[in-house]
Write a structure and sequence with these properties.
Blueprint: E1 9-13, E2 17-22, E3 25-29, E4 35-42, H1 45-50, E5 54-55, E6 57-58, E7 62-65, E8 71-81, E9 84-91, E10 95-104, E11 112-114, H2 116-123, E12 125-130, E13 140-143, E14 146-149, E15 152-161, E16 171-175, E17 189-192, E18 195-198, E19 201-202, E20 205-206, E21 210-213, E22 232-233, E23 242-244, H3 254-258, H4 261-264, E24 271-273, H5 278-283, E25 294-295, E26 302-303
Length: about 325
């Protein structure tokens, strides 16, 4: 069968999909470069080379499945026309969405700059967790190229991303395979002077930033405001229910308990219920919700646009309230 060099190579689609064609094979990756699909393809190479619209047939078009094997997400159609790919994405709940993909010279990991040589030595050793009340769990430990904390962790690389051109390069500790932000009990860790920052989402609950520092710096660092935010529901706007507190004040809702609160309690330095009097509420300035600052739950980047759908730093989807 004949194949086209017009199609062979790398294609990127609106920071959503990264495709690689090699003759009869296609690999589809998501924005994190995790492989979603590897399949065989066939198409009319003569039609494609002549500039006509050519539909690319996939041996398998399923990107994700339900437990019973039925399709959750998939590629409804993939076609080449006018030197671009048209991808019709299907989701069993939200329906169909169209994407355009354009050829790129960059490989799937060319957007990542590995900086182990610059940062690995300075990261070695013990990092204590900052909490507002001084209650600490076990420290985060970095030994060689492995990070561990509360039973989670693994091998990592220290990286920055080429697309970050608006400010000095940010540096992150990410899993060694470069396709995920998750270390099991926390997400990608941002390396800052004198501190490490991380955060996470469990189901539909966003946890505040977690701060780690050397023990001698815990009372000297300038703690980001994101570390002082309450736990919040990412699916809808709700009154603030939880903030940092000691274990003795803990009063969890059944929802959080059933989600396995004990599994991620360490990310908050323990949780408690917030009590606000009517006088306190009356004295607080009412802010326009549209002006509220949002933080990417995957990398901690502060978003300039309050209704951004994707993080400008790491490309992760942003839950819409």
């Amino acid at each position: 069968m004949k194949y086209s060099e017009k199609l062979n190579g790398y294609w990127e689609s609106e920071n959503q999909f990264f495709l690689e064609f090699r003759d009869e094979s296609l690999t589809v990756r998501d924005q994190r470069r995790r492989i979603m699909l590897e399949t065989g393809v066939s198409y009319d190479a003569d039609k494609l080379d002549s500039g006509e619209r050519a539909v690319i047939m996939l041996e398998d078009n399923k990107l994700s499945s339900y437990a019973d094997g039925s399709m959750m997400t998939g590629i409804k159609e993939l076609a080449f026309e006018n030197d671009e790919l048209s991808l019709l994405y299907y989701h069993s709940v939200i329906g169909e969405t169209g994407y355009k993909a354009h050829k790129t010279e960059a490989g799937p990991f060319d957007h990542v700059i590995i900086r182990d040589d610059e940062f690995l030595d300075s990261l070695q050793g013990v990092w204590e967790q900052w909490t507002h009340n001084g209650v600490r769990l076990e420290p985060l430990v970095i030994e060689k190229n492995t990070v561990s904390w509360l039973g989670g962790g693994g091998e990592f690389h220290v990286v920055s991303y080429r697309k970050d051109i608006s400010e000095p390069k940010k540096v992150f500790i990410v899993p060694a395979d470069l396709t995920s932000y998750d270390f099991g009990c926390f997400t990608a860790v941002e390396v800052r002077p004198d501190m490490l920052l991380t955060n996470m989402i469990v189901t539909d609950v966003a946890m505040p930033l977690t701060v780690f520092a050397r023990e001698e710096m815990l009372d000297k660092i300038e703690v980001p405001s994101g570390a002082k935010l309450p736990v919040r529901n990412t699916m809808q706007k709700q009154p603030e229910m939880f903030v940092f507190a000691g274990m003795s004040n803990m009063n969890m809702t059944p929802m959080l308990t059933t989600m396995g609160m004990m599994g991620f309690m360490g990310m908050t330095g323990m949780l408690g219920q917030r009590q606000q009097t009517s006088e306190q509420k009356g004295s607080e300035k009412k802010e326009d919700p549209k002006k509220e600052e949002k933080i990417c739950s995957h990398c901690g980047h502060r978003l300039a646009e309050p209704f951004a759908r994707f993080c400008s730093e790491c490309g992760a989807p942003i839950p819409q309230l």
